[in-house]
Amino acid sequence: MKHLISLWEMIWKHFRIIIRSKITLLTIFMGPLLIIFIIGMAFNNQSLQNINIGLYVNSGLNETNTSIEITNPSILKIHDSLNESFSVSYVTSLDACIKGVKIGAHHACIELPLGLDPEEVDADNYVHIYSDLSQINLAYSLLAEVSESVSLETKRLSLLFTENLIEEIRNSESTITTGNEQLSDVKTDLNSLGSDLDQARDRLGTMSLDAGSGFEDLEDLPSTADSIDSRVTDLQSLAEVIEDDYDDLVRDIDNKQDDYDVDCENSTSDDCDELMVEIDTLSDTKNLFENYLTYTGNSSDSLEDLLDEIRTIAYAASASYNQLNTNLAHALTIRNSAISAIDDSTLSIDLLVSDVTSVSSDFSDLLSGYSEIKLKDSEKIVNPLNVSVHTVAKEGTFLDYSFPLLIILVISFLGILLSSNVIMIEKKSSAFFRNYITPVREFMFLISVYFVMMIIMIIDVIIVMLAATIFFNFSISLASLPSLLPAILIIATVFVLIGMSIGFIFKDEEGATITSIFLSTILFLFSPIVIPLENMSIILSKIASFSPLVLGMEVLKRILIFDVSILESGWAVLFLFVYIALLVFAIFSTHEFHKKRI
Amino acid sequence: MKSLIKLEHITKAINGVSILKDISFDVNNGEIFGIIGKNGAGKTTLLRVLIGFYHYDFGKYSIYDDEKIPLNKDFLKSNFGFATQENCFYDDLTVFENIKYFGRMYFMKKEALLGKIEDVLEVVELKTQRNVLAKNLSGGMKRRLDLACSLVHSPHVLLLDEPTAELDPVAANHMWKTLKNINKQGTTIILSSHFLNRVDHVCDRIAILDEGFVMEVGTPKELKDLYSQNEEIVLQTFPANYDQVIFYLKNSGVEITNLIVRDKSLVIYTKEPAKVLQLVLKVLNLLNETLLELEVNKPSLNEIFESVTAKKMKRKSADKLVKYVESSVEKFKDSKLREKLLKAYPKEVVDRVLKKR
User: Fold this and answer.
1) In what order do the strands lie in the sheet with B3-14?
2) Is B10 strand, coil or helix?
3) Is A321 a domain residue?
4) Is residue A175 in a domain?
5) Is residue B52 less than 8 Å (CB to CB) from chain A?
């Protein structure tokens, strides 16, 4: 308890001494406030400001811009695009443009060819950008923004050209599709034609142009007709006989009828019946004879007519047969000729079909190839990969992103410089010896300095955070506080111990101050603040990654910007603890060494 | 008087340089013990050994002549006070704040501390300056503040290193008076100084230190009787044209052993003090010198000091040291301990010891 009281007394003593020095007090507490205000006002934005771009249009001749009237639409578009973000001015010559970059009049110089014409095959379409890469942190941001402005026009033109191409391809596709369909129809028709021709050929082949047999008897036909005529005559004679018989029959019938009429008029007997039946039968026979006679009469007439016709026909047929033979012979010739022609046509058709098939196949291949092209959107062709940059952290201003840096700078510079200064003041103080001859343990004095420094650091960090929160809308999530507070304590401890070590090592204030500044500068330079570590050589980059400033920045960045717990920065925190252990050892060693020099 | 502190053959080297060589003396309870010596004699180192800031390399250091009392640093720091030569306090704290701070460093409770601060301020006569920043105090006040810081915890032993250094005579006188008052309250005082005339008057006993050796220890009278038959006449005059005074005195025919001007005073060593005194008064009158101060001491500590630090005395003391080292070496059979012992002593002594062996 008594040690705690004496510790409190020591801490309060340090504060009294600090407070008594108005300038020190002002620097310690107003310094960070000033820093946050200056940096806040400077960086509380999200874009590059006040950038001057020099634009030189190269005509290829020894003409200056002033004598050239710039009407090239691409150049004008690029100029307008750049003018939205930067202050663009035309420069008269390339040398003047580059010199402007060197002397700081321009941040970058862009050279465009006067004949910039993306559609012209022979045009020089190179856009040259001259930039000062010695402004490392600015150069790449600037180049990115300038390139983006220039590439907007490039992109627009690419889109346009690609769209044209795609449109042509689309048109070609539909034409090819239509053509392919037509070809298919043609092929079908040709095949059909071929098939028809085959059929026709087959038919022609099967066509019998042989008049056949049996017509040779056609000449015998008149003689046959004469034979038939004689037979008809015989039939006629027979018919006359029959007619005579008929007449006899009729007379019989009439006689029988008369008999019946006489005998059977008033009686019915079997003889009458039989007589009737007989009469009927004779009547039927008579009818048959009549029919037959009529028929034969007609028939014989007809037959004679027919025979005449037959003779006529025969004669005609014979003539026709002869003519037919002649025609058939001619037809055969023609048929053969036709078959031959058909064969030729068939062959041609086959070739045509083959060609059509080939063309159709090509068209199909084209269509197939076209359909296999998955990317048909011009926008996607020009930009196959849509690059979208997302911030891992929440959106914010440059101040938000540089806040961990700000904190670490306050902690590091204050920790190293003030701690070494406090130790020096204590060492140089005439009371230093008296502290040694009191019963208070010597390490308590070291602890008191540590606590004083930590209190000052925490107050400064709070001042910075409050100022940032109130005036620049900086926000810290409450969830990150359990990680943030221990992180700040650990980081601050490292730098305080570094400062205390320096204070004990050096005998004089000048040496301690110079070393503190020098060490702070080294830590500052070998950190991502000025140049990314990745720009250094591998070995140095590896070494620098273990710098307490780099480790501290990483831890704070993860907590403040990425809302990551301190536990997830395990390695960095572990190394900081290692630093703490080493520094504590160093302090006690140098303290003992210093004590011997009193 | 009971012996409070006993030092036996204390030896201390710093950075390989032997500072204290065979320091042996004791300090009685309640006395004012003076340690005198030239600059670089080892006075400050001896005091720092006494306070426990330095640990001696060899020898024995005991309190109350009782080895059972653990003579650790805490005991020394808690019971000893130390007023340094360089004014050890914080310039940017007030008188009150400084005393309070150091009182806290001695784990004093608040109420007791506040009361003690008032007492101490009264003793050192800084009550009216309690709220003045230390850096704004005069030289004399600063020394008193330093004294106050070393008194706040009511130490049993108060060590003072050159308590009147850089003080004007008035302030110095004031300081000596204060110390006497403190001593009267029971505090044992051990002080170092090269202001031999003052030490002579204030201290009960004196140790003469020269090049790390204690040449002699004794009361001022004992030392004077041991080393000098002269009386010392110390006078201060105005306008202090001592050259003329010396001229007259030297040519006066009176037996004068030595005439020196020291600290704006004229010091006359003579075996005939009465005669010289009469002559001095006449000469002063003749030369229109106004007598400001006159003291007659028998003998002067300065003279004793000068005698003691003569080479032959050093040789005598060195012989004693060699004898002691020899006897000490005989006691230790272990070679490492012997080596450690020999390291604690000056090379010339060790060479002599080894040569004899």
Assistant:
1) B17-28, B3-14, B58-63
2) strand
3) yes
4) no
5) yes
Contact list in A for residue B106 (CB cut-off 8 A) is 438-439
Residue A84: which domain range?
52-169
Residues A447 and A300 in one domain: no
Would an 8 Å CB–CB cutoff place B77 in contact with chain A?
yes
- Inter-chain CB proximity A9 and B53 less than 8 Å: no
Together in a domain, A474 and A540: yes
Domain count along chain A: 3
Helix (H) or strand (E) holding A509: helix A509-525
B131 and B46, same domain (yes or no):
yes
Size of interface A-B (CB pairs under 8 A): 72
Average of pLDDT values for B248-266?
A: 84
| Residues B262 and B210 reside in one and the same domain | no
Return the exposure string of A30-47: e unless at least 16 CB atoms fall within 10 Å of the residue's CB, then b: ebbeebbbebbeebbeee
**Phi-psi sector, B310: left (phi>0), alpha (psi -120 to 50), beta:** beta
> Which of A169, A200, A224 finishes a domain?
A169
Residue B251 Cα, gap to closest chain A Cα (Å): 51
When CB atoms are compared, the residue of A16, A17, A438 closest to B102 is A438
Q: Does B275 touch chain A (CB under 8 A)?
A: no
What chain B residue is nearest to A7 in terms of C-alpha separation? B105
- Kindly state the average pLDDT of the residues A264-277: 75
Task: Verify that A129 and A161 share a domain, yes or no.
Answer: yes
- CA of A54 to nearest chain B CA: how many angstroms apart? 60
Say whether both A356 and A452 belong to one domain: no
| Contact state of A435 with B105 under an 8 Å Cβ cutoff | yes
Domain boundaries, position B352: 310-356
Q: Which of B209, B224, B239 is the last residue of a domain?
A: B224
Q: A365 and A293 in one domain?
A: yes
Identify which of A10, A20, A433 has the shortest CB distance to residue B88.
Answer: A433
Residue B269 contacts A, CB cutoff 8 Å: no
How confident is the model over A452-478, as a mean pLDDT?
Answer: 86
Task: For B115-136, write each residue's pLDDT tens digit.
Answer: 999 999 988 889 999 999 999 9
Could you tell me which residues come within 8 angstroms of residue A527 by beta carbon, excluding any fewer than 6 positions away? A533, A544, A547, A549, A550, A553
Q: Does B213 touch chain A (CB under 8 A)?
A: no
pTM surpassing 0.80? no
Looking at the structure, tell me whether residues B340 and B264 fall in a common domain. Answer: no
Chain A residue closest to B153 (CA)? A438
Question: What is residue A497's predicted lDDT score, i.e. its pLDDT?
Answer: 93
The answer, yes or no, to whether residue A230 has pLDDT greater than 90, is no
Q: Determine, for residues A6 and B89 on separate chains, whether the beta-carbon distance falls below 8 Å.
A: no
Partners of B51 on chain A (C-beta within 8 Å) are 437
Give yes or no: residues A514 and A401 share one domain. yes
Domain contains A194: no
Distances (CA, A) of B203 to A159, B28, B228: 107, 12, 19
- Residue A132 burial class via C-beta count within 10 angstroms: exposed 0-12, middle 13-18, buried 19 and up: middle
